[in-house]
DNA sequence: GCGTTTTATGTTATCGCTATCATTAACACG
DNA sequence: CGTGTTAATGATAGCGATAACATAAAACGC
């Protein structure tokens, strides 16, 4: 059994109405319809009204893929983030969308699960849609991905990182420096025996840089060697944070402060402490990274590093748009450094 | 100052290479290139190799917008969720993406911030891209949105709800029933004085239905009248949950159990209790909705209602694809009811 | 070996829109 | 009133791919 499809507007040939149908119906040329639909201002008030009446009566909807073929502007911007489930990255995606909305560009969003191979495939798939610009997360890409991006001849913004070898433009911060700053801040409060909880693999480059920043700060300050627990593939979940905390406590019971690769794992670690009856920060202190909502709301509240995720998205989109509008007059290779800020709370 | 753009592949006219350039370079017709690129199997091995060599040498990337104009298949599926920052909805988006990936369709994702007006605008913007199907959240839409969708003549799947008047297909569950079930489960454990924390406005229709389910279960069971705290516009944050919990405790100190519209607000409420030194569930019990990661990880763990968010996305995408492939042989108006399950944990 | 099928390739005509140029009408000004 | 200028509209020719049909070459059957 099947239902009939609902009644649809059709032109005389039984097809979906096109701009030519609208033009005929309104008694004008299709150029006038096109102009009316993009508010070109070169259509008289009366004509415009007749056109919109015809559009309404026929239920016409502009076909942008046809339009972009002719105008060579697709109105797309592509963006790839590691994950859309992580609220840090979805904040960035939201920032991009909100900023693009003002410009009439539409976002083509994808996530690569922290894999550069998947990123390469996604880049290829997206370039086939001829985006006018592309926003990536991080500065590590496959060779083929780099080549494709260069060939595409569109502006690229790398975010969330400071790539050693940027493709084009960058909006980000140093994950290593941010983590260093956190360690130094905590060392300033008197903590000496540090542990670090992060992911295992090499996939999460931001996580790796945070770990590197942790290690270099520890040795720079001449503190006892950092105790590092690596746990699972990214993203490190709350549950994994809890388990890793168990590892820290059993291996190095005298640890004074634990820093986690993100607030999510830090929260898991915090909960594990509570389950074991440990008092945070009295028995052991905990700090996270990313300043997620949860860090400001849990009890005790988590010390964290605020990185302006939403702002990263907005800035990246704005920079991309500026370049799209005026490719020659933009300072390519310019770096936009976003703010990082230690947010000290009760957990340390 | 500006840098030169990186060297890009160009055809003799100085344009980006097209399929015709590839064809010329490989000494074949562009139809063969087209066929080779879509693995039609109707290209000999030697020709195929020559073509891919040419593609590689020229750095050619297929232009899908040109292709879809001719083939009348864009390869797009549109989806609108209320928010991409809420992990329940981003799980659904992930489910959609993961399922679509197998089919070669690409997702055009947008969020409407719980607003049907914004949804209407987004639907129009997306229909201009001629998606082959569209996935919506909830069953409430503006009249114009409904009309546009019917006119579009593409399959529609409404999710996360059981619309009173479905447009086409539905993959969802009854938010009211799910909440009722939670109330009855808790009543079965002996709780009698219930409070409810949810959003203020009429925007979040799922939230409203949960509240309705709460109220009807309370009165159906003959329990003391439910105490409802409405708080802010959706999405209700952790912080708002905490504040609302303060309201419950000051207005009705004898409340035995508080149910929240989502786990996020429930977590905020839980933290507020901890800050006030109240023991959960001994002094007051708390339950949430959505079975977010945090519910399973906080301390005490939160009782919640598991709705299979990821699965909703997968099923919706699968159903949409089936309809796209075979519009006539699909049972339109068929309803796919997804599972709901009470997850009892230590908080109640 | 000859007709028949299958496989591989090419030719042509769009798809639905917009850029570009051409045209007409309306208006201003000395 | 003629000329120049601006505003409003139309005609035409693609944009870059694919559908549909046509053809050539190879494989097959008896």
Mean pLDDT of chain A: 92
Biggest interface: A-B, 68 and 68 residues
Order of neighbouring strands in the sheet with most strands of chain A: 2-1-3-4-5-11
- Major sheet summary line of chain A: 6 strands, parallel
Class from secondary-structure proportions of chain A:
alpha/beta
What does this structure look like?
The structure is a homodimer of 348-residue chains. Chain A has 348 residues and is of the alpha/beta class. Helices cover 45% and strands 15% of the residues of chain A. Chain A is built from 13 helices and 12 strands. Chain A has helices at residues 19-26, 30-37, 45-58, 64-71, 87-103, 116-127, 143-152, 175-188, 205-220, 238-251, 263-275, 293-297, 309-325; strands spanning 76-81, 106-111, 134-137, 156-159, 169-172, 194-198, 227-230, 257-260, 285-287, 304-307, 335-337, 340-343. Chain A has a 6-stranded parallel sheet, with helices on both faces. In chain A, helix 1 crosses helix 2, helix 1 crosses helix 3 and helix 10 crosses helix 11 (263-275). The first copy, chain A, is elongated and about 85 Å long. At the A-B interface, helix 4, helix 5, strand 2, helix 6 and helix 7 of A face helix 4, helix 5, strand 2, helix 6 and helix 7 of B. Chain A binds a DNA duplex (30 and 30 nucleotides) through residues 18-20, 28-32, 34-35, 38, 42-44, 47, 62-72.
């Amino acid at each position: 059994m099947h239902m009939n499809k609902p009644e649809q507007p059709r032109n005389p040939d039984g097809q979906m109405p096109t701009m030519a149908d609208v033009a005929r119906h309104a008694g004008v040329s299709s150029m006038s319809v096109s102009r009316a639909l993009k508010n070109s201002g070169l259509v008289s008030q009366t004509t415009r009204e007749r056109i919109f009446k015809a559009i309404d009566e026929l239920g016409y909807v502009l076909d942008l893929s046809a339009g972009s073929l002719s105008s060579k502007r697709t109105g797309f911007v592509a963006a790839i983030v590691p994950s859309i489930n992580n609220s840090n990255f979805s904040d960035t995606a939201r920032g991009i969308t909100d900023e693009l909305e003002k410009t009439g560009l539409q976002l083509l969003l994808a996530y690569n699960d922290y894999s550069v191979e998947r990123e390469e495939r996604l880049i290829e798939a997206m370039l086939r849609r001829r985006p006018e610009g592309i926003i990536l997360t991080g500065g590590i890409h496959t060779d083929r991905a780099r080549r494709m991006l260069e060939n595409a001849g569109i502006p690229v913004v790398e975010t969330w990182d400071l790539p050693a070898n940027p493709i084009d433009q960058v909006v980000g911060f140093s994950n290593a420096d941010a983590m260093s700053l956190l360690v130094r801040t905590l060392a300033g409060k008197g903590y000496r025996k540090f542990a670090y909880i992060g992911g295992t693999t090499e996939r999460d480059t931001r996580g790796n840089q945070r770990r590197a920043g942790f290690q270099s700060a520890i040795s720079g300050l001449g503190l006892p060697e950092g105790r590092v627990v690596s746990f699972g593939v990214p993203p490190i979940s709350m549950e994994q944070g809890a388990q890793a905390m168990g590892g820290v406590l059993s291996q190095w019971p005298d640890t004074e402060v634990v820093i986690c690769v993100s607030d999510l794992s830090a929260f898991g670690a915090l909960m594990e402490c509570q389950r074991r009856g440990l008092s945070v920060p009295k028995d052991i202190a905990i700090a996270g990274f990313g300043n997620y909502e949860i860090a400001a709301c849990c009890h005790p509240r988590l010390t964290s590093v605020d990185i302006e995720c939403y702002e990263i998205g907005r800035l990246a989109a704005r920079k991309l748009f500026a370049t799209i509008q005026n490719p020659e007059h933009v300072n390519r290779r310019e770096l936009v450094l976003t703010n990082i800020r230690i947010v000290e709370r009760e957990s340390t």
